Every structure is written in C-alpha cells, then in structure tokens.
Amino acid sequence: MSTVLETIDGGTRYLEQRGIEDARRNMQLLVARQLGCSRMDLYLQFDRPIAEPDLVPLRETLKKRGEGIPLQHLLGSVGFHHREFKTDARALIPRPETEELAEWILSWELPSISRVLDMGCGSGVLGLTLAAERPAWEVTLADVSPEALALARENAALLALDSVGFVHSDLFSAVTGGFDGIVANLPYVPDGERASMAREVLHDPELALFSGPDGLDLIRRFIPEAFSRLNPGGWLVLEIGHDQASQVAGILQTSSFTAIEVKTDLSGVARFPFARRPAL
Fold first, then answer.
1. Could you list the residue range(s) of the whole structural domain that residue 64 is in?
2. Which of 215, 213, 272 is nearest to 238 (CA)?
C-alpha cells in the first residue's frame, strides 16, 4: 500500500505533467477530501498507509483533475468570507475578487435595515454572505438560470438562511419593488476571448461568462433598469472585467447615476464600479 506522502508525491507529478498549476496543493486537497481530514492533518500522518478502497476513487478524481475539471467541482465546496459554500457546474466558481467585493460592501456604514438585491446571484455566495452578516437586511437573490438558483437555495439551506428571497428572472423581468442596494456580478467576458480562456474556466456555464463582442451587452441592459429599481439614494455595485472601467462608468453616467467611483481589487485592477441614484 502507498503511504499518504507517496500518494501525494505521485499525484503531484501526474498533475504537473498535465499542466495543472499549484499541483501539490491540488493533490493534498484531493487526498484530504478522500480521507475525510483537513489538508493540515495530512502533515501529521505522512506514513499512514492508504488502503485500496480509498485509492480507487482517488485515482478517478485525480484523472478528472488532470483533464481540467476544476478542483472546486471535485471538492464540491469553496471557502468564501469565512464560510463554506457548495459549488458545482451549475454556476460560476466564486472568484477571490468577488470575496473582496463582499468585504468592501460590509465595511460601509449602511442602514441596519435595507432591502438588497443580488442580481445574477449564481451560487449565491455574494448575496448570502451579505444576508448572513447583516441579518436585518431583506436580501433577494435573482438569476436567469434555474440551475444556478437551485444551487443558491441549497447554499441558503446549508447556512440556515431561511429568510432570503429567490426569484427566477431575466434581469428585472420578474423582480418586484424597489431596493436600497443592488449588487451584481454579471457575465462580462467578450465572446472573442473564448478560445484563449483556461480550460478550467470553460467548465463554468457559458451563460455566466460571455456577454457579446465587448462583454458589456448585459451590463448595458442592466444599468438603466437598475436605476429605475433603486430607491432614492440607493447604491449600485458591480464586478466587471479588467479593462471595462471607463466604459461602465460612462454607462452609469448616461443612466443618471451620481457619485460614480471605480474601486480597485487587491491586484490594482479597476474592478468594482460604485454609483448612487440621487436622493430626493
């Protein structure tokens, strides 16, 4: 029988040969999942033999990772703002930038009671994080994909967030009422970038990635509609592509938003446009 360390070493070499970045960490996480322990626990049991009933499924999972299946899909979960969320092929894998966006919003001094909408919620990590951290907020999650919305509901159940609302909607078509805040991480990848994207990313739903020749088709539709659904003084925050800040700021201005500002992510990329509907 192979030991934990021998299995990690062999799997790491296998993944490296197939171009998987951070191969050793990937293998450690796959082994830890199979053995039902944490990655750190592995360091205390390198000499532990791994029996064949564990090796057989581990080999199959390793093969899938070598074929480019995302690690998060194989693990079945992803950490986001101190919580674990279920993740799979039904929705976009949460990105670190989206976690930055959640932390930025939660750092604001906002009213303790607010009605907030997460448009294009996907797996729900952003809207559910806001709901968990601000229990008095009335949070609604909306998405055009019934599959993504089902995943978001499952995550809400895992977090025992039974007061969150869900709406199956093409943008605002089935959404009712006004909001004090709207957050949106909509598709923003230009269609022409499809061929150059990492194979892992292409396991995300196309509906959650691509949005026309310049990636802004959906955002152009969304921003004017969002203005009409915000209460006076209400705020809007988006996550956008690395080179879209000036264009999105222009769309916000044309749509009568004020206090327009684009915040940078930790890599220095202008990533998060913020704007307000003017107060009365």
1. 2-68
2. 272
